[in-house]
Amino acid sequence: MEAKDGSFGFDFDATYTAINVGKSFSYEFGGRCANVEFNEQEGQTEVTISFDPETENSSELQRQGWQAILDNFKKYTENN
């Protein structure tokens, strides 16, 4: 994963641990786990991610980072 301007980037390697097509999926990455759920809300799709936080950055900073990824994904899907 990398910022568009190349200012920041990192390798992301994960293994899917569960897939419920159209509903949710889970994956393991670096000894941590995440779960992604898709729920219909008033004709739109709500995406919820829960994850095991890492210890290097505060939980709030991590939440902001994941939210930024979701916000960018929302913009992408609305423009395509």
Features:
4-stranded antiparallel β-sheet; 4 strands; 80 residues; alpha+beta; single chain; Alpha-D-Glucose-1,6-Bisphosphate, Chain A, domain 4
CATH fold title: Alpha-D-Glucose-1,6-Bisphosphate, Chain A, domain 4
- Measured between the Cα atoms of the first and last residue, the distance is 21 Å
- Sheet with the most strands? 4 strands, antiparallel
Please state the second-level CATH architecture: 2-Layer Sandwich
Name the helix and strand elements from N-terminus to C-terminus, one letter apiece. Answer: EEEEH
Poorly predicted spans? none
- Broad CATH class: Alpha Beta
Please indicate the count of domains.
1
Mean pLDDT: 90
Strand content: 35-45%
Instruction: Summarize the amount of helix as a percent range.
Output: 25-40%
Placed side by side, the strands forming the largest sheet appear as: 1-2-3-4
Quick one: overall form?
Answer: globular
Count of DSSP H/I helices: 1
DSSP strand tally? 4
